[in-house]
C-alpha cells in the first residue's frame, strides 16, 4: 500500500518508545491472561488510535493498533478456545479507513471493530457491554494529542476489573495553561484538571504540579477501597524536554509489576528516555543525613537509585529475607526488580559491603 503523506505523520523516537512499551506490555499481559482459567475473552481498546502508520527518521513505523492486532492475532491461534476482541476508534474517518488496510483479517475467535466517533462517547458505550462480566479482561488505551482528558468517560474503566493506560500530555499544559484566554482553551484545562483556571494558573510551568493533580484525580475517581496501583513513566523528546507521562492504572498487582518491568526494559535499565549525561554514576552530598548519596533524578531513575532505596529502608534491620526486599521494591510506583535482581544483589554486596546470601541479606544492627 502506498503511504498517504497527509495522514502518515513524522514522529519523534519517544513515540516509538511509547508503542514499544504498550506492545511489550500487551505481549506479557495477554500470555498471563490466556493462561488464566477465569479469563474467557480479552479486549483491547485504543479509542484514539490514529491511522496505524508513522515515519520516524525517514523509516516507516507501525503504531499501536497495527502492532497489537498482529500480536494478538498470533496469540489467538495459540488459544483457539478463548476470544480476543479489539476496538479501534478515531474521530477522523480517513484515519480509520487508512488503518483498515493495515490490519489483519478477522478469524473465528479474533475480531477487530473499527469506528470513527468521539472516543469518549465510544468508550462510554463500550463500557456498558463489558462491565459486570468478570471473565472479560480489558485494557483501555486513552491517547489524545493534547491535554484533554474526559474523566467521566474513563471513570467506569478505573472502577472495574481491567486496566487503563492514559497519556497525560503534560507538555501541553506546561506551555499553554498560563496563556489560556479563549473560553474553549480554559474549559479544556478545567475539564482535564477538574478545577478552575484560577487554581491552575499558579501551576505555571511546574510539570510535577500537573502530575500530582492527575494522580489525585485518579485516586478520587475510585469508589471502592480495594487496593489500586498507579505507575507513571515520563517520555522526553530529542531536546530532552518532557512530552508526556504514560500512566498505567490497575487493581491487579501482577499487571502493575509487569508494566514497570516493561518500561525499564524499553528504557534500557532506566525509568525514562531522558538523557542524563552519565550523572547517574555521580555521588552527591546529602547534608541532611550527613551521608553520600548517588545522584537521583525522579524523571530518570537508574538501578543505583533502586539499590539506594533498598539500603535506606533496611540499613538497620539486620537479617532480611530477600523476598521481603523484592516485595518492598515492587510496591514502588516506578521501581522494578524483575530483570535486575543479580545487579542489585551485587551492588549491595560490593558498594555497601553487605553479606548477601541465597535467600537473605544481612544489613546493619538488629540481631
Ligand atoms: C496521539 S494520536 C494516537 C496514537 C495511537 N494511540 C497510537 O499509539 O498509534 C491521537 C489521535 O487521537 C485522535 N483524537 C483526538 N481527539 C479525539 C476524540 N475526541 N475522539 C477520538 N479520537 C480523537 C486524533 O485524530 C489522533 O489521531
What this model shows, in words?
This protein has 367 residues and is an alpha/beta fold. The chain folds into 2 domains: 9-266, Rossmann fold; 279-362. The protein has 13 helices and 15 strands. The protein has helices spanning 13-34, 64-78, 93-100, 119-130, 151-158, 170-176, 183-193, 197-200, 207-221, 253-266, 303-314, 322-330, 341-350; strands spanning 9-10, 41-46, 53-56, 59-62, 83-89, 110-115, 136-142, 162-168, 229-236, 242-250, 283-286, 291-294, 319-321, 355-356, 360-362. The strands form 4 sheets. It has a 7-stranded mixed beta sheet, with helices on both faces. Helix 1 (13-34) runs parallel beside helix 2 (64-78), helix 1 (13-34) runs antiparallel to helix 10 (253-266) and helix 11 (303-314) crosses helix 13. The longest helix is centred in the N-terminal third of the chain and has 22 residues, at 13-34. The radius of gyration is 22 Å and the shape is globular. The N and C termini lie far apart (69 Å). The model has no long low-confidence stretch (mean pLDDT 94). The structure holds S-adenosylmethionine. S-adenosylmethionine is lined by residues 19, 46, 48-50, 63-64, 89-92, 95, 118-120, 141, 143-145.
Amino acid at each position: 500500500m502506498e503511504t498517504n503523506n497527509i495522514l502518515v505523520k513524522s514522529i519523534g523516537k519517544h513515540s516509538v518508545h511509547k508503542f514499544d512499551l504498550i506492545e511489550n506490555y500487551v505481549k506479557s499481559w495477554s500470555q498471563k491472561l490466556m493462561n488464566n482459567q477465569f479469563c474467557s475473552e480479552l479486549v483491547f481498546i485504543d479509542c484514539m488510535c490514529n491511522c496505524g502508520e508513522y515515519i520516524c527518521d525517514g523509516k516507516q513505523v507501525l503504531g499501536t493498533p497495527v502492532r497489537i492486532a498482529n500480536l494478538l492475532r498470533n496469540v489467538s491461534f495459540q488459544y483457539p478456545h478463548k476470544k480476543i476482541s479489539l476496538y479501534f476508534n478515531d474521530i477522523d474517518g480517513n484515519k480509520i479507513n487508512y488503518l483498515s488496510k493495515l490490519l489483519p483479517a478477522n478469524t473465528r475467535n479474533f475480531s477487530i471493530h473499527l469506528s470513527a466517533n468521539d472516543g469518549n462517547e465510544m468508550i462510554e458505550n463500550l463500557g456498558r457491554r463489558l462491565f459486570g462480566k468478570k471473565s472479560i479482561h480489558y485494557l483501555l488505551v486513552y491517547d489524545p494529542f493534547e491535554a484533554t482528558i474526559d474523566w467521566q468517560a474513563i471513570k467506569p474503566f478505573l472502577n472495574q476489573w481491567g486496566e487503563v493506560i492514559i497519556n497525560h500530555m503534560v507538555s501541553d499544559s506546561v506551555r499553554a495553561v498560563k496563556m489560556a484566554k479563549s473560553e474553549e482553551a480554559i474549559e479544556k484545562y478545567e475539564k482535564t484538571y477538574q478545577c478552575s483556571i484560577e487554581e491552575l494558573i499558579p501551576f505555571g510551568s511546574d510539570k510535577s504540579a500537573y502530575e500530582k493533580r492527575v494522580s489525585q484525580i485518579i485516586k478520587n475517581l475510585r469508589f471502592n477501597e480495594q487496593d489500586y496501583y498507579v505507575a507513571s513513566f515520563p517520555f522526553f523528546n530529542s531536546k530532552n524536554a518532557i512530552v508526556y507521562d504514560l500512566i498505567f492504572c490497575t487493581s491487579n498487582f501482577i499487571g502493575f509489576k509487569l508494566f514497570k518491568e516493561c518500561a525499564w526494559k524499553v528504557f534500557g535499565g532506566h525509568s525514562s528516555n531522558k538523557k542524563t549525561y552519565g550523572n547517574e554514576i555521580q555521588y552527591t552530598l546529602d547534608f541532611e543525613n550527613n551521608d553520600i548519596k548517588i545522584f537521583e533524578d525522579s524523571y530518570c531513575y537508574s538501578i543505583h537509585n533502586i539499590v539506594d532505596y533498598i539500603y535506606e529502608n533496611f540499613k538497620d534491620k539486620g537479617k532480611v529475607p530477600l523476598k521481603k526486599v523484592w516485595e518492598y521494591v515492587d510496591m514502588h510506583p516506578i521501581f522494578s526488580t524483575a530483570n535486575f535482581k543479580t545487579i542489585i544483589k551485587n551492588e549491595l554486596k560490593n558498594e555497601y559491603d553487605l553479606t548477601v546470601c541465597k535467600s537473605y541479606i544481612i544489613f546493619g544492627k538488629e540481631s
